[in-house]
Amino acid sequence: MMFFLGAVLSYLIGSIPTAYIIGRLYKGIDIRQHGSGNVGATNVFRVLGKWPGILVLAIDILKGMVVVTLVADVLHLQTNLSRILLAVIVVIGHNWTIFLGFKGGKGIATSLGVLIGLTIKMAVIRPVLFLTIFVWLATFLLSAYVSLASIVAAVCLPFFMLLTNQPFEIMVLGVVFCIFVVLRHRPNIGRLLNGQESQVPLPFRKNKS
Question: Which of 75, 156, 162, 207 qualifies as a FRET site for 141, CA 20 to 30 Å off?
Fold first, then answer.
């Protein structure tokens, strides 16, 4: 019963459509009808600007952190397996939110929040978190593609878990997150292959339009 309650709470927390809400409150717009149409922080940065984007990013990260720490602890779901199952559910909620017809974001920020939250409870995961963030940043700074950085970091995640000898259930989490990210980025992969993906303007490099 406690796990069922935790699963429902995790899904509902993940389902909070932060980008949609901020778009409505900040500009009175439906973010799904602007930019890439994605309900995520990157699209908010492009459409609404820096501070709304930072707010959406922070809240989406917080969703993952809250579930694997606070929700898990309050409901006494403190085993590694329980935290990891809740972690998967909160990302499912973000990616397929009930509040927007089961169409949500791409799960990057919430997955990051999950990893941050898990490192608070399981120090063994910290090297994985640092390596994943490093790969994301390096890929982004070299390419100026948020989508490419997210895909590369997600693909590397299970390998980082394997190289650092993580417990089996944590390695499974890495594989699941990798699959989620690749599936949610299928349109981006197509645009990357066709040279049509938008880059983020960076002051030290010349970007494509």
Answer: 162
**Which tokens in the block code for residue 38?**
């994605």
Burial of 121 (0-12, 13-18, 19+ CB in 10 A): middle
Q: Domain boundaries in the chain?
A: 2-193
Q: 3-state DSSP: the chain helix, strand, coil percent, rounded to 5? A: 75, 0, 25
Write the burial class of residue 182 (CB in 10 Å: 0-12 exposed, 13-18 middle, 19+ buried): middle
Helices (H) and strands (E) in the chain, counts: 11, 0
Contact 199, 142 (CB under 8 A): no
Report residue 190 as tokens.
């197509």
Structure-block tokens of residue 55: 């707010």
What pTM did the predictor assign?
Answer: 0.93
How would you classify residue 35: left for phi > 0, otherwise alpha for psi between -120 and 50, otherwise beta?
left
Quote the radius of gyration of the chain (alpha carbons, Å): 17
- DSSP category for residue 79: S
**Is residue 113 a contact partner of residue 65, using CB atoms and an 8 Å limit?**
yes
SS3 179: helix
Interatomic CA distance for residues 113 and 51, integer angstroms: 19
Phi first, then psi, for residue 204 (nearest 5°) are -105, 5
